[in-house]
Amino acid sequence: MTTTRTLRMKFTTASGKDASVNVAHCRENLTGELVGAAMDAVIEAKVFAADFSGKVGADIIERSVRNIF
């Protein structure tokens, strides 16, 4: 069985819409403080076409795959 972890960071945009950024293969020991600081850096860097203006939240998505053939 293979398990993968994806970090999903959710933002609001200047136009009031929601947007998210997914990062595959995130570390196991992430903290809210660390992810929050990373999200602040993304907002400040303005590297995406959507103008991120705030943080909504973040999730770690775990997916397990069991090969049967």
Structure, described:
The model has no long low-confidence stretch (mean pLDDT 96). A hairpin with a 4-residue loop joins strand 1 and strand 2. This protein has a three-stranded antiparallel beta sheet, covered by helices on one side. It has one helix at residues 32-45; strands at residues 2-13, 18-24, 52-65. The chain has one domain (2-65). It contains one helix and three strands.
Which secondary structure elements does this structure contain, and how are they paired or packed?
Elements: E1 2-13, E2 18-24, H1 32-45, E3 52-65
Antiparallel strand pairs: 1-2, 1-3
Question: How many DSSP H or I helices?
Answer: 1
Sheet with the most strands: spatial strand order: 2-1-3
Estimate the helix proportion, in percent: 10-25%
Low-pLDDT stretches: none
**What's the β-strand tally?**
3
Main pleated-sheet profile: 3 strands, antiparallel
* Count of the domains: 1
Overall shape: it is elongated
Beta-strand content? over 45%
Mean pLDDT: 96
Order of helices and strands: EEHE
Class of secondary structure makeup: alpha+beta
Instruction: Give Rg in angstroms.
Output: 14 Å
Q: CA-to-CA gap between the ends?
A: 12 Å
Notable traits:
alpha+beta; 48% strand; single chain; 69 residues; 1 helix; three-stranded antiparallel β-sheet
Give a concise summary:
The protein is an alpha+beta fold. It has one helix at 32-45, and strands at 2-13, 18-24, 52-65. It has one domain (2-65).
